[in-house]
Amino acid sequence: MTGEDVYAGAGVGAAPQPERSVSVHDLAHRFPGTDVLFEHLDFTAIPGQTVAICGPSGCGKSTLLSILAGWEKPYHGTVERKNVERVGWVFQNPYGVPGRTALDHVVFPLLAKGLRRREAEPQALEAMGLFDLEYAADRRFGELSGGEAQRLMLARAVCSRPDMLLVDEPTAQLDTRTAHSVSHVLGNLAGQGMIVLVATHDPDTRDACGRVIDLAD
């Protein structure tokens, strides 16, 4: 399959910051004994624009995210990360500590940065509010639905403020109304200074992003 940059929109929020970027050059990948997932892929992602990585199941969307993060070595081509030190990842299947509250999960990255709990909680609740989760702040993670847990991981990622945020199929476990709301928020995240790339097959999420990289033929 050939990666094609099919649309470059204007972006939402703050102006792009070219000093931070991730670029791929003639990228291709295959696993031993398998066909090529994608090839001849060239693009640069910068803050100020949310990029959707699209294509059918099995085309290599999650694999591309792994390569961008530096977890997987590409079969061919190069990845250049400029001023990208902290990479955040929101997996398709959310993981948490069953006995800890939802708020505990979102507060944690702020506490790790040195904030006190009373300073961190307002920021964490604000992030939870982006994904309509304030009501669940005191619920234990084990009591959350799959969709609530997925939105919680997105809120925690926003609080951690990585240089590059990778999101894998964010609406897979959400109902249509909630998925639309989450897609809208994702489309605006890049305005916070992060490079944001979202692997998705959801047309609504695709449309909410400012740019689309399509791995389909």
Extended strand count: 9
User: Percentage of helical residues?
Assistant: 25-40%
The CATH topology of the largest domain is given as Rossmann fold
Biggest sheet overview: 6 strands, mixed
Provide the number of structural domains.
2
Task: Please state the average pLDDT score.
Answer: 86
- Strands of the biggest beta sheet: in what spatial order? 1-9-4-8-7-6
Keywords:
alpha/beta; globular; 6-stranded mixed beta sheet; 3-stranded antiparallel beta sheet; 217 residues; Rossmann fold
Question: Mind explaining what this structure looks like?
Answer:
This protein is α/β, with parallel strands linked by helices and 217 residues long. It has two domains: 4-86 and 162-214, Rossmann fold, CATH 3.40.50; 96-152, no CATH class. The chain has six helices and nine strands. The strands form two sheets. The chain has a six-stranded mixed β-sheet with strand order 1-9-4-8-7-6, with helices on both faces. A hairpin with an 8-residue loop joins β2 (21-29) and β3.
Question: In terms of topology, how is this protein built?
Answer:
Blueprint lengths: L3 E5 L12 E9 L8 E8 L4 E5 L6 H9 L6 E7 L4 E4 L11 H11 L4 H14 L15 H15 L3 E5 L7 H14 L5 E5 L3 H6 L2 E4 L3
Parallel strand pairs: 4-8, 4-9, 6-7, 7-8
Antiparallel strand pairs: 1-9, 2-3, 2-5
Helix pairs in contact: 2-3, 2-4, 3-4
At a glance:
The protein has 217 residues and is of the alpha/beta class. Helix content is 32%, strand content 24%. The longest helix has 15 residues, at 146-160.
